[in-house]
Amino acid sequence: MSLTQEQAGKRMDKLITSSISQVGTSLAWGLVASLIFFKRKSWPVIVGGGFGVGAAFADISNEVNLNS
Hints:
- There is one protein chain.
- The chain is mostly helical and 68 residues long.
- It has 2 helices and no strands.
- The protein is elongated and about 50 Å long.
- It has helices at 5-36, 43-66.
- Belongs to the MICOS complex subunit Mic10 family.
């Protein structure tokens, strides 16, 4: 089943919004952990960002594979 341009655009907007949200939330949790628990080290922020990017990639991959 092929998507119309409007459907594909809405789907892409949803995926981009979800990805930005996941990465931002993970970075925020990493920042909070860094400030509270790890005496302002940078690695919790980097790890949090990595988890966010990984989760976003997995969601995009699942969405594309399920609807192909």
